[in-house]
C-alpha cells in the first residue's frame, strides 16, 4: 500500500483518478497519455480533446432540481480526502446517479437523516469518528436498514473484513478501489432498487 511521505500512513484516495479522467475524456472522443523520465522525476499527463463548434458550455443539462430518472441511485460518499470524495462523486454523476458528499461522520449522519439513500461509500478513517461508528449509527436510522453500506479502507485482512461486517457494512472495498468493483456495486444496487419498485 502506498505510504504518505514522512508519515508511515497509507495514502488515501480511491486510486481511480486516472481511470476517471480516461472515462471522462473518452466520453468526449479524446485521449489521455502519461510520460515520465524516471522515478522521482515527475510525470506529464496530456489530455487531448476534439474541438466542437456548437456546444454551449454555459448550459447545465442536469440541474439540481431535475427529477430523478428511473434507475437513478441516491448515493452518499463519505471521505475526509476531498479529492477522493469528489472523484467518486463525478463518477456517480457520469453513471447517472445523484451523488451527495460528506467529509465527516457527523455530516454523513445528518445527510442520512435528511434523505433516503440507496448506497453509502464510507471511509473508515474519518477525523471525528470511525467509519465503524458511523455505520452502526446509520443502521439505527429509519429507512437505513436496506441501504447498501460499502466500507472504503486501506486495510483488507480477514480481521478487517470481519470488523466491517460486524459494524453493519454489506461490502468491503480496499483502497485503491478498482473502478469495475465500484461500477458492479452500483449496477447491483440499481437492479435491487428496480426489483423492489416493481414488487
Describe the protein.
This protein has helices at residues 17-27, 82-94, 105-114, 131-139, 158-166, 179-198, and strands at 31-35, 44-48, 74-78, 98-102, 119-123, 148-153, 171-174. It starts with 16 loop residues before the first helix and ends with a helix. The chain is 36% helix and 18% strand. The strands form two sheets. A five-stranded parallel beta sheet has the order 4-3-5-6-7, sandwiched between helices. Strands 1-2 form a two-stranded antiparallel ribbon. By secondary structure, the protein is an alpha/beta fold.
Nearest-integer average pLDDT = 81
Model regions low in confidence, pLDDT < 50 over at least 5 residues: 1-11, 54-67
What class do helices, strands and sheet pairing give? alpha/beta
The largest sheet is:
5 strands, parallel
What is the global morphology? globular
* Percent in strands: 15-25%
Question: Count the helices. How many?
Answer: 6
Distance between the termini: 44 Å
**Major sheet strand order:** 4-3-5-6-7
Please report the total strand number as a whole number.
7
Approximate helicity band: 25-40%
> What's the alpha carbon Rg, rounded to whole Å?
18 Å
Order of helices and strands: HEEEHEHEHEHEH
Amino acid at each position: 500500500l502506498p505510504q504518505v511521505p514522512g508519515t508511515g500512513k497509507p495514502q488515501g484516495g480511491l486510486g481511480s483518478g486516472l481511470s476517471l479522467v480516461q472515462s471522462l475524456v473518452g466520453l468526449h472522443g479524446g485521449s489521455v497519455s502519461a510520460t515520465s523520465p524516471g522515478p522521482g522525476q515527475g510525470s506529464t499527463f496530456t489530455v487531448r480533446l476534439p474541438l466542437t463548434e456548437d456546444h454551449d458550455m454555459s448550459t447545465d443539462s442536469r440541474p439540481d432540481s431535475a427529477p430523478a430518472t428511473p434507475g437513478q441511485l441516491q448515493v452518499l460518499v463519505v471521505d475526509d480526502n476531498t479529492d477522493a470524495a469528489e472523484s467518486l462523486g463525478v463518477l456517480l454523476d457520469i453513471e447517472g446517479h445523484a451523488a451527495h458528499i460528506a467529509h465527516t461522520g457527523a455530516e454523513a449522519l445528518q445527510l442520512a437523516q435528511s434523505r433516503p439513500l440507496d448506497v453509502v461509500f464510507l471511509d473508515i478513517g474519518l477525523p471525528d469518528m470511525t467509519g465503524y461508528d458511523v455505520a452502526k449509527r446509520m443502521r439505527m436510522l429509519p429507512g437505513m436498514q436496506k441501504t447498501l453500506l460499502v466500507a472504503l479502507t486501506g486495510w483488507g485482512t480477514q480481521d478487517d473484513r470481519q470488523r466491517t461486517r460486524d459494524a453493519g457494512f454489506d461490502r468491503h472495498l480496499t483502497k485503491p478501489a478498482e473502478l469495475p468493483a465500484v461500477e458492479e456495486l452500483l449496477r447491483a444496487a440499481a437492479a435491487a432498487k428496480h426489483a423492489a419498485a416493481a414488487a
